[in-house]
Amino acid sequence: MTDVVARAAGATAVEVYKDGRSLLTSAGSRIAYVKDLKKNYKKLMQEARKLWELRDGLETEISRHKISQVTREWIVKVEMITREVGELETKYNDEKKNPWRLLRVWPHSNLSKDMADKHGQVQILLEEGKLKRGVLVAELPEPVRKIHAPKIEDNSSLHKVVEDVVSFLDDKQIRIIGIWGRVGTGKTTIMQNLNNHKDNAKMFDIVIWAPVSKEWSLKKLQGAIMQRLKLNVESTAGIEENAWRIAEELKGKKCLILMDEIFDLIDLHEVMGIQDNLESKVVLASRLRDICKDMEADELINVKPLSDHEAFNMFKEKVGRSIHFPGIKPVAELVVRECGGLPLLIDRVARTFRKKERNVSLWRDALNNLLRWENTQGMDEVLEFLRFCYDNLDSDAKKVCFLYGALYPEEYDIYIDYLIECWRAEGFIPADESIHDKNAFRDARDKGHAILDDLINVSLLESSEKRKCVKMNKVLRDMALKISSQIGDSKFLAKPCEGLEEPPNHEEWKQASRISLMDNELCNLPNALECRDLLTLLLQRNKNLCAIPEFFFKSMCNLRVLDLHDTSIESLPSSLSALISLKGLYLNSCFNLVELPTQIKELVQLEVLDIRGTKISLVQVRCLIWLKCLRISLSNFGTGSHTENKLGNVSRFVSLEEFSVVIDSSKQSWDKIVETIATEVASLEKLTSLQFCFPKVNCLEIFIMTSPAWKKGSCLTFQFAVGNHDSTDFQILKSFDYLSYNRLTLVNSKGVNPVISEVLMETHAFALINHKGASRLSDFGIENMDNMLVCLIERCDEIETIINGDVITKGVLECLEDLLINNVLKLESIWEGPVHPGSLTQLTTLTLTKCPVLKKIFSNGMIQQLPELQHLRIEECHQIEEIIMQSENIELESSSLPRLKTLVLLDLPRLRSIWVNDSFKWPSLQSIKISMCDRLKRLPFNIVNATKLRFIEGQQTWWEELVWEDDVVKQRLQPVFHPQRAHASV
Predict the structure, then answer these.
(1) Is the CB of residue 366 less than 8 Å from the CB of residue 352?
(2) Are strands 608-610 and 584-586 parallel, antiparallel or unpaired?
(3) Which position has the higher pLDDT, 211 or 680?
């Protein structure tokens, strides 16, 4: 009994202890709430204000009738808690007004606790509101919806119109602005730029882009506006209801409506109740001034065609860098003139010409196409020119030209000039009667280039790795052969590279219209054939073919192309006279061919003859005075002592447009007759292309002074070798991969002759080799080099600098892209004196090799003029200490050399710096090769620049000895470093 009482008493004591402890804890908590009353009040009010700001923002951004049910419930909760917070705030303020109440712990603790709890509820609602805000904002129409807008040049007439409209929009007295002008003047471009204008957000709550199509209706226009406002478009709603909904949505908002291409009167009040919204403004564009007036425009702006200067600038910007290529600018000016200052036409035509890149032939051909369209007014004029852009993509001529490529082996390199000659011979490129036929052959070649370019663009033909060639892959060739087999008059017998030792049977010859047996092992050909439908016969590179049967050509009266080049034939049979339709005859590299039959004179349609590398004397073909293109070697002038075998023959070719004389072993006898021959060549009035060697400058002078083809504006394409050349020197510039380069090599000459300066004015690629009597390139007259794209200076021991800027007053060498300097022993600098703006701005490649005293590469002000430099190579220049000298380049911007991609530094024993620090961004740099530059201990890189650098090659020992500002930089670059292999070629 006693134990029970004792246990009960103990339990009671424990409970009392627990209750007392609970009471103490509760009291302590309430005391804590009392202490935190002020703090909890501040926290509650701060979060509440954030909540109210969020609510007010959402209510401002969207109309209440668009708020979803979930959002409406959230706002109701916010309003409820706002009242509750207000009640707590009132109680708190009452307590502050009566300080004696602060002694009452229990009520104060309840108030503080309520504030803390309410703070938690506010936070929950705030977070919920933030999550909803993203969804809600996505439901809202954005203030400005940016659209694609062609760039408008600053200070242009279009830019002025845009700025005029913006100024009108800022005028409270003006509500409707009308822009009018004929089609193509740039009204849409103006409207698009207005839509995106930076000042819109400052002036308007929303900008609505509402173009009006020809098939417009009030309901369609309302639907477009309602979609922009993100209003539900109900199909059953009428026009009046839609107008009311639009007006309600725009009520109280500043709105800008842009309406483009208006063809008919539109009642803006009927569409959107615009008259009730005095804050809204409208800009409308139409071809007709009266439409703008009928729609009560307060201001009218007439958009006129661009000036010649503006039109050309727009065309230049859209075409790109090719506009700077010599020979293209004059064509471009004619193209722009045909566009009549209409931006729409300039844009469309520029898109077409941009595809022509820097091929002058393509540009000329496309211009000829433009010239055939008759100018009309209004929409018809634009449609005609747009039709030109469309028609340029396809034609029957392109189809047959594509099929012709199947005569050659798959993946075979086909010379472009040769292929185009075959196309012309076949009649695929008919003469254009609307164009003067003085240079018909060149015009046809230009047209051929245009066709070829289109075939490449659609991938039916491919550009070859070998320059000046194209090829056709197997699948496309098979397809072409299949198509040709289905065309009645275009049967192909194409068996190139099949190892044939015997020719096809007679029936195959008879059925074929085009035969290709090139690159086989044929030893003989049929003696008599029946193939009157044969148009092309390709037998080239059958090296075992030594003879052509006497009657082989007898039935080939329609043959247009005959290629026998690089065979072992010694003569041609008399049946050659049957080839009365032949236009192209290729006998080049037939080294054993000595004689042509006298019947050659019967080939009255022949246009192209190639006898390079044969033993045929020019006198044997002197009767072919109708030739358009003749290619010969020096040896074809004859090796005998009788001048009648050599002279008086060239001048007979009065129709010749293209003449090529290739240097070979007969150079010594050439020197004795070249002056007379140069005089004969100068008499060729229709000449458009000339490859020729002038042993002395005075021989060139004879040609320049007497040739009508040289006169300004004749567009003569030339490859001139001046001086005592060998075949290697003449070929030195042939590696430049553009078909229409005018090339001049000046070798082993002295002084500065005015004739050279004159030729330089038309030269694109210039090689100055082993020249004496000039200390600068500019001695030849820097003003004569405006068209120069490539310059090579080699073994010129008296050259000390390339350009002397002290005697120049404007930018020079503005088109120069490649500058290569090799083995110039006294060269001290590239540029001396001031560098005028515009100089060298197109330079992409700079190579300096074996210049032993060169110390300064980039003189003061030069780097700022090299925004396009992509490739820099310095090799065996033993005095170079800094690639970019600090003393010459003070305060360079970090964005200098923005396009430099490759940097090669070889055998520069004194080099210690590329640039003094790591301040350059090097944004385009991809590859660096450094070898035998042992003093170069630092690279100009840090952890953030040169972001595209993917390859560093150098000697392992050099890499290990580099000094780094931070190991992090080395760690970053280590993965892209590649040790140079022993004896590696760089």
Answers:
(1) yes
(2) parallel
(3) 680
